[in-house]
Each structure stands twice: as C-alpha cells, then as structure tokens.
Amino acid sequence: MIIVLKKNADEKKVEELKESFLEKGLKLHISQGMNTLLIGLIGDTTELDEEQIGAMEVVESVKRIREPYKKANKSMHPQDTIVDVCGRKIGSGNFQVIAGPCSVETKEQMIEVAQDVQASGAGLLRGGAFKPRTSPYSFQGLGKNGLELLLEAKKATGLPIVTEIMSPSHLELFEEVDVIQIGTRNMQNFELLKEVGTVNKPVLLKRGMANTLDELLMSAEYIMAGGNENVILCERGIRTFETSMRNTLDISAIPMLKSKTHLPVIIDPSHAAGIRFMVEPLTMAAIAAGADGVMIEVHNNPEKALCDGKQSLTPEMFDDVMKKVKKTTEFFGKVM
Amino acid sequence: MIIVLKKNADEKKVEELKESFLEKGLKLHISQGMNTLLIGLIGDTTELDEEQIGAMEVVESVKRIREPYKKANKSMHPQDTIVDVCGRKIGSGNFQVIAGPCSVETKEQMIEVAQDVQASGAGLLRGGAFKPRTSPYSFQGLGKNGLELLLEAKKATGLPIVTEIMSPSHLELFEEVDVIQIGTRNMQNFELLKEVGTVNKPVLLKRGMANTLDELLMSAEYIMAGGNENVILCERGIRTFETSMRNTLDISAIPMLKSKTHLPVIIDPSHAAGIRFMVEPLTMAAIAAGADGVMIEVHNNPEKALCDGKQSLTPEMFDDVMKKVKKTTEFFGKVM
Amino acid sequence: MIIVLKKNADEKKVEELKESFLEKGLKLHISQGMNTLLIGLIGDTTELDEEQIGAMEVVESVKRIREPYKKANKSMHPQDTIVDVCGRKIGSGNFQVIAGPCSVETKEQMIEVAQDVQASGAGLLRGGAFKPRTSPYSFQGLGKNGLELLLEAKKATGLPIVTEIMSPSHLELFEEVDVIQIGTRNMQNFELLKEVGTVNKPVLLKRGMANTLDELLMSAEYIMAGGNENVILCERGIRTFETSMRNTLDISAIPMLKSKTHLPVIIDPSHAAGIRFMVEPLTMAAIAAGADGVMIEVHNNPEKALCDGKQSLTPEMFDDVMKKVKKTTEFFGKVM
Amino acid sequence: MIIVLKKNADEKKVEELKESFLEKGLKLHISQGMNTLLIGLIGDTTELDEEQIGAMEVVESVKRIREPYKKANKSMHPQDTIVDVCGRKIGSGNFQVIAGPCSVETKEQMIEVAQDVQASGAGLLRGGAFKPRTSPYSFQGLGKNGLELLLEAKKATGLPIVTEIMSPSHLELFEEVDVIQIGTRNMQNFELLKEVGTVNKPVLLKRGMANTLDELLMSAEYIMAGGNENVILCERGIRTFETSMRNTLDISAIPMLKSKTHLPVIIDPSHAAGIRFMVEPLTMAAIAAGADGVMIEVHNNPEKALCDGKQSLTPEMFDDVMKKVKKTTEFFGKVM
C-alpha cells in the first residue's frame, strides 16, 4: 500500500500515522520528494481500510498494490481449485453443465426436466424453490415444498442439485442440497455469506449485477474466511445502458477472474441475455474464453413457465446445444 | 397492458391466450392491423407477469401502461404520506435532518455526537450497529451492543434513532429502534423486506446502487404489501462510470419519485459523494429539488472513524451546514 | 407504431393527429378501451419521430414495433452482406483478421509489422495516422505522412489498409485507403458519417463506448442512406462501472446484431480489454459467438509504442494467437 | 506521478527507464521496498502518457498525483474565470439563463420565442441550426438558413446567440455567432475542438453522455491549448441504467468541477431529464449546488416542435420558472 501525504502535512500527525502502522507490524519505506512524501507499507495490509486511511487530514491519496483478499487470491494459491460435487468436478480443466427450470413448479415437471437434461449430458440439476422476484405479486416459489421436489428429482436421476438460498434462517432446510446458490441480489448480503461460510458444502456465488470483480472476490472471501473454501464464481450479466437484452454478459470476467483467483468460474448465459436464441452463442463464447461451466435454464413448457420463460430452452433445444457443448469443450481441451 | 402478437400467430394459441385473460377477470380490446394483432387488457393487471406473457410463442412484445405497484402508487393515493417518528414528521412539506456517525463506536462518541447534532437542529440520530462492509476483514459494527449505545444516546437527548438491519433474524433486537433502515445492498433482499413489512415501525428504504426507480418502488411495495405503510425512500447515489466521486447522486430521482408515489423521499449526500466538501452543495440541491429530508454523516473525530471517515463532517462543519439548511428549507417553504 | 392516447384527450386534437398520419399515407387501426384509445399505424413509419409524437398533449406514450432503420435492417435484406476489400471477404461465413500497430510511427516499424502480421496470416493491415487522444499533449499521430507510410507498407506486402478518419475535410487524403475507420468517439459525428456515405469504399464503424446497438445501426444507416452500403460494424467494448479492464466487451452484441442486421460484425479485443493477456481469450470468444473478424493490435516493440502499448501483442504473441484463430475458425465453420 | 516497478524487474531496463525521465528534465525520487521499487517523478508530467509507461515490461502500475490538464486547472489559476458574452457575464458569482427552442424552424417562431424569453429575463438565446439526430431520416436542422434566422432574432432583441457547430468546415459560417456550442456527441471530436480553439469566441462545451469529468476537462484543455480560454462547461445528463428519464443529471459535477477548474459550469436540465415537468426542480437544484447558469428549451408550440418537444417549456411555463430563478439566485447570492 502506498500512501501519498499532502504538501505541508502536519509533522506530528505524520509521525502518529507512521507509529500506527509500525504498531500493526508493518514496515515502512519512506520517500521524500520535493512536494510530496510517500509512505510504502510492507507486510500484510489485507486488514487495513483504504478509506479510513484516505480520510486522514494529512493523507492526499492511497493506492493498494496487492488486492485485499487472501484466501481467494491466486498469488497465495497458484493451483486452480477443483470443486467436487458428488463426484462431478468443476474447475482446473473440468467443465460442468448445470441445467433445469428457473423455478420448481410440480413433481412431474421436475422429474421430466431432470431426466431430459440428464439424457442430454447435464451434470447438475438447477431449480429455484425460493425465488427472488422484483414484485411481491409475482410467484415467489414453492419454498420448502420446492426443495422436496428437487430432492425427488435427484432421487430419480442421481443428479446433484443446485438451488438458491434467500435467508440465513433457511440454512437448515438446505441440508440435503448439494450446491447452495447465492443469487445476484444477495452477493453483498453479508449475513447470508457468513452463514454459508459455516457449512461444508459448495456455494455457487453469482456476481451482483452492478458489482466489480474485486467486490465479487471479496464476497467469496467472506465465505472462505468462515472456513468454506468450496466457492464457484458465476458471471450472469451486468447492468449497463444497453436495452436490447436483459443484461450485458461480461465475458472478459472469465480471463480476468482467472488471473486473480484459483476458484472456478462459470457463466449463466440464460440470465445474462434473457432471450432464448442467445443462449447457444453465449455458451460457445464462454467455453472459448475459458469458463469452467455454464448454467442453462431448461423448461419442458417455456410458455407456461412461472418465471423467466422467455429465456428457457425446451429439452429439444437444450439437447442441440449440448451436442455442440460436448464437441466444443473437447476442442478447447476441457473434460466434461 | 398492450400485447402485440406475432405475424401469422397460431390462431388456436391466440384463442387460448385470450381465454386465460378472460378467466382472470380482465376485459380485452382487440385491434386487428394489416400485419399485427393487438390485445389491450383492461382491469387490474398488477399481478400479471410481463415476462411470462412475453415468453409465449405467439407474442411479439408486451407494454405495460400502468405501473405494477399499487400501494406505493400516487395515482391510487394522491395525498402525500407523512411518516411520523415520535412526533418528527417527514413528508408533505415536513423536512427532517437525520445525522450521526457511520458506525456506533463508543458510548462517549455516541452521546457526544448525539448532543452535538441535536444542538445544531437534527431531528433524528443515525448510527450503524450492524455494518455491511465489502471486506470480511473490515470493522463489522458493534452489533447488539451498538444498538444499546444508540438507545443510551436516545435517552440522553430524546432523539429518535435510525439504524440498519442486515438479517431477518435480528428483527427482535430492533424493538426499541425508531426507524429501521434497509441498506443499499439489501434493497432487493426480499426476505428482509417481507420481515420489516410485518412490523408497525417506519422503514427507511435506500435505493440499490444499480436499481431503477421502479424497482425501488416495487421494494417499497413488498414492505407495504405486508401491512407496513410507513416507508421513507432514500436516494444515496447510483453506480456509474464516473470515478471522481464514490457514486453519482441521482437528484432527478426526487421529482420523478414524487410524480410516481406519495411516499416521502430523502437524500443521503454523504454516501452519494463520499467526500466531505460535497455534502453541503448536495444538501442544498436536495432541498431545492423538493426532498423531504437529508441524512448526513457526522463524526466527532472523522480521522479516527472506523468507517467512511472521508465523508463525515465534524460537528462544527455540520453546525454550519445546518444554519444554511434552516434558511434554505424556509426559503423553499418546507417546515423543519 | 402504437400510440396510446391520454384518458379524456381532447377529441378535436385527436382528430387532427389522425389526419396528420393519414396525410403521410399511413393507415390507422383504432382500438377503443374503457380508459384508453390506441392508434396503430400501418405503413412505413421510419421517418416518424417518436419523440415528437410523444410530446403531443393528447399522447400518453408511443411504442415502435419495427426498428427505425431500413437499409441496415435484416428483415428487408435477409441475406448476409459480404464486404469485399481487395478480394478479402468479410461476412456471411468469411472471417478476416485485421492487425497492426495502434499508431503509425516510422517506415521501418510499419513495414516490419506488416510483413510480420502477413506472415502470421492477417488479411488486412491497420495503423492510425490521425489519432484521437484524450489529452492535447499526447502524440496526435503522423497525419498525412502516416497515411503515406501505410501505403508503403501496403506496397511492400499487398495487404489492404484500414485507418481512421477524424474530420470530413480529410476525406480526399483517404483516396488510396482501402477501409475507412470511424472511431468510437465519432460514431455519432453525423457530419463525418454523411461524408463517408458519399464514397464507394468500405467503412469500419466502431460502436460508441456508450451507444446502444440500435444507435450503432442508426449510424450505419446514415452511411448507407448516403449510398455507401459497405459497412462493417465493430464492437470494441463499452463503458461500465467495472474498473479492472479498460472497457467491457459486449460479446452479446454479436448474436444480437446478427439478428437485427445483414452487415458483418467484427470485434476489437485489444481496445475492449486494454490488456495484452486478454486478447487471446476474447478473440476465441468472438469466433465462438459468431463474429466475422477481429482487429488486433500488434507492435514490434510494445514498450516503445507511442500509444496503447499495454494492449499490443508482439509479432511472436500474435503468431501464436493466429495459429489458434485458424484452427478455431475452421472448427466453427468459418472461411479465412 | 508514481511508478511502481515489478518485483525482480530487469535492472538494465529500469536504468533505461530512469534515464528517459531524466532526459525529459524530471527529477526522480526512488524508494526501495522489500518487494517493490517506487519511482516518484517530480516536475511537469502533463505530457507524459500514463498508458505508455504502464505498458513497459518492468512497470507494475502508474499513478498520477496531479491532473494532466494545465490551463483548465484551478491550482494553476485559482481565480474563477468570468466569460463575457456581449456584456453578459457567466461565472464567479454571475448567473445566466440561456433559453430558446431546440431547433430553429421559422423566422416567426425564432423572433416570437426570442422576445418571449427576453421578456422573462433570459440573457442569451439558444437555437439549433445544425442538428445532431440519431436517425438520418429525422429533421436535420435548417443549416445556414437557420443561422440567419438566429441573427434576425438577435437583431430584433439584442440577445446574444448560442448555437451548435457540427463540422470544422462550418466554422466560417459562425462568424457572427456569439457562443459556439460543442454538443455532447462531439465532446471528443478532437478535430472540432482544435478548430474552435483557434477563434476568439466563447465556447459552450457539453459533457459527453459517457465521459468522466476529467475527460471533459481534457477536452476543454484542447480548446484552451489552441489559445481560446473562453470555455463554459455544461453538464447535461449522463447515460446510466435508469430508464424513467432520458439521462441522469449529474448534479455533483457542479461542486466537483468547481474544485478542479476555474471555468464556469452550467446545467442543461431540459436535455438531462427529457421531460417538461422536471425542468423546474432541476433548475432549482442547479442553482443551489452552485451552477453559473442554466440552458432551458422553450418553444412557442411544443407539440409541433420539430425536435425534443417533450421537454420544451411554453413561454408561459418558462416565465413561471424565471420568477423562481430570480428569487433563488438572489437567495444563493448570485448576480443575474
């Protein structure tokens, strides 16, 4: 961390500042310029608060050299992490497709879709039991009953299940869930992050629609700091000025995250675009850019889907996409 | 709601669609053009899901004519709401200043700041006990103890207190809190919104940093649909490409929200700018644009503040700002 | 176009409005609801101004059904356009790589880089002679001399050249240039668009960094309306809140543009990311998503590049990327 | 400027880098840390290119301490600039209202509107002769004839005129224009900026809809570097994700720009909001936040306006707003 002090900063206050860093076990490197004094801090600055330092009267500006996350940081853990979900591997060359409906609706629907996506080659089953909806008047999901239907679909097919948690108090209901999803609106719901950090179960952490990649990694750090290092990052489109699609898929997040962290990175092309015909090209782009998986919405009757039908593939369309996914992952040297 | 059907849409499916609307008690107005068929829906369309309709095979596009919120809607409730907090009125010509530190730190700090801001004319006291922080390694607030210190400051001064809730399970701890704040990162934490909808206590709802005004109103609707109609909306800066300040204050949100809803609208200039010197001009702008209040960070020792010191005013600076606030609200015909 | 009239709109004014549409040769379809009157306009509404209609006292809102561009519109021209540059084909299955330095610096540099990128398989040579720079104190390009050096490089290699125009008055200098580039900051420099619409030479039109895809197509329409239908669209990253890379590549622009227009679409991964290591994965993603080409910065000495060295590949790195480009375009069924 | 070198950077290359700075007349301050070497540059770094330095192999990152603009910089010119337009003063406590139609349509319209806005107290007359329109099929302005109508309106009223230039080659037509406007889409049309830098006439420079404040100041610097220091900055709304209004007015731009530059700053509430009813509250906010003027669209028949009628005030509405502007500027200590 480099601290630039103000011209004519009060000497006594500067000395106090230096003392406070030394007390934290940091070493200082001082550089006196004609107008400015620089302090370089050497040691573990992870727990220093840039803003607090920047607020001091004598400080002109602060620049972090190393990122404020530790456990998620690639430089501390150069080998890519493989998250293992009931034998399905994600990361470090292993690619998985997570598929299923936006929301769990009926037993028949779940079992039918589960069998269909399994037949096409999906490795995990998704489905929302607790649904975050913009309007209180929209379908809110089947809740606990939805989780049970997911487990029945798992029993019928053997596919591990991925589903979203919306409240810390629901955690006990998720005991048999295989991957707990944190949705985009909860990426900075820190109480929820802390809670899922206490369990020993993979967490699929979706990027907030207006959060930077560093913020995403800090949220992963919340979970990891709690002891749960099985975090899968998911880019699902960010909010921009463009209006022709629901969100803008930040494909560059894949190589950028992979340069910063050892955690697996997957893409959700369905929520990114919000439109069915874009799911295939965005899936291909994700594989080509180095993603470790994709998460695709599939519904056996998209027109009657209780949410997000506009972006759901039919099982037939999904089967077509999966044929290309298999060839393309192979071409790019990934194992499915 | 107007539904534009696709050219050559399957007639049977169109008939089914029409039936489904009639079953919901809506009336239809059909307009057959040369290429397109339009269906206008008449009645209460609040609970219809635009996306679900848009997903249907025969549908080209959907356009809502009326907003999907009811209780927050000005057209259903033309008179502006006044939220009353222990006798302090907010809304419909009544202006309040909420002031205090970003986070509660010590008893001395809280009582000192509370007395200072009261002396300068603040009507409510703010302070964070549970703090949402980007990094798990930053100060997370004093929690329950922080709430107790706030209550002691209330006892010492009589100022009602405003503080943030971060988890539904904390609600019982907030029994003596006067205004419950929902922070920007939790604006779409729907479980939390539902929970605060069940109590009979004013809620200060901050706009998410990348949420539209309609989404803010839908989140207010969540609280109101639960039975709690005492919602105060707060614009606190949105995320844009501009990097010279922390966020971009959306001053236009004030007149736009006031055209859409009867709820009071306040501004948080401290978090919007993130820089001390901008608090005063943004406060003046907020009053001039018609806000019903402002929320200002004040710390007795900003350099040692455990969070957000860069934007906190000292009590002396706050006193200066308050002198101008009093004159300016009077000039614009507001009652403080 | 559908026009929703206000409740209780003045009947005389409504009649005048209807008349005005009839006079323009449009047919009307009227739908009277309980509260609202809808007017559907049938015919060529391209030249109608939504905002002007929306401003009328009797009008509640206006919705366009068909896009306001004609010549660029896929529905009017379903077959994909192939732009031919000296025999190099772009579009409809034909893929091209445009490579070269950000700015033209010396004769030796240009010829060396041109020979290098040709040897690696690039089809066109890029290089900036007139450079748009944020600061008036940064290197502004060699101007006319730069164009001459480009032509010498073309002579030495046979590679057609692509270079940016910054002012309508420079057009005559571009007579021997093969593809005229309109840069991101000039996407809505309408006088410049009109000017390049008058020549019979391919135009590479870069998307403005905060322009929607529909605005990009309207700018293409400016050029095409002037008679020049050889337009190549280029997505080069948009401006968002993310700070870890220079811009956010909107990979979804490829399938979305291809659904709207018959014009070829290429990607500039170098400017999108602004960082060398991301050029390869973004290039792969572009091919996978269906792009018709990429534009890559290559410099024989990136550290001494007079602009944008941070994102330039060395000829060796470019050669590596090209080996993958050849295999990947073949895998995805494109002809290079 | 502070340069952070990479760990284990090649020593010879570091020496070459240091040499290159010394050759430019800069002094170096070196700080050797445990892992990192810092170089602080002392002297005029305005002409150094951060990106070029950042691209060097041995460089980890670069941080500018001082802004890269000189003539526009407040620290070099602490006294606020007053731009004088035919005796109307803008800046340093002097407030002006610029009013008139979006586009010049007929002689009658211009003279009528000019007389109306003058009677209400406007100090300058605006009107577009050359119009930047998204669609080539929209009304493009009357061009040269429009300029003549503006001059007739000036003759009739004495109001100085403000109008937009769209091409460097039009400059000679603007000889009798009092203030040349650079529109939002041309803020980084550097050839145009250079051209208006050569004349001795006030320039009203609008912020690009996705440009940072530092980029706006760099564009002002282009004009000033050419010798024309009469630049008026104009904030007119930026592009964000919010869809309920046309643009998001960045009110914070006023205090932030005033901390960075001595140039006057005005606001265009009409284009920011794009909706009539928001013009008054945004104008009040602009005055309260410290603006030096506002620019308001007024049309004698907004429903028939050939562009942007939705946001134009009628002369009666404008008269109402002006009554409040007079009282409010007086309250805030500005001279009109």
Question: How would you portray this structure in words?
Answer:
The structure is a homotetramer of 336-residue chains. Chain A has 336 residues and is of the alpha/beta class. The first copy, chain A, has helices spanning 11-23, 50-54, 107-120, 144-157, 190-196, 213-225, 253-260, 269-273, 279-289, 315-331, and strands at residues 2-5, 27-32, 37-42, 59-63, 83-85, 88-90, 96-100, 124-126, 161-164, 179-182, 203-206, 231-235, 265-267, 293-297. In chain A, β2 (27-32) and β3 form a beta hairpin. The longest helix of chain A is centred in the C-terminal third of the chain and has 17 residues, at 315-331. The radius of gyration of chain A is 23 Å and the shape is elongated. The mean pLDDT of chain A is 92.
Task: Throw out a few tags for this protein.
homotetramer, 336 residues, alpha/beta, 8-stranded parallel beta sheet, 4-stranded antiparallel beta sheet, 10 helices, 14 strands, 32% helix, elongated
- Give the CA-CA distance, first to last residue of chain A: 42 Å
Q: What proportion strand of chain A?
A: 15-25%
Order of helices and strands of chain A: EHEEHEEEEHEHEEHEHEHEHHEH
Measured by residues with Cβ under 8 Å of the partner chain's Cβ, the largest interface is: A-B, 52 and 52 residues
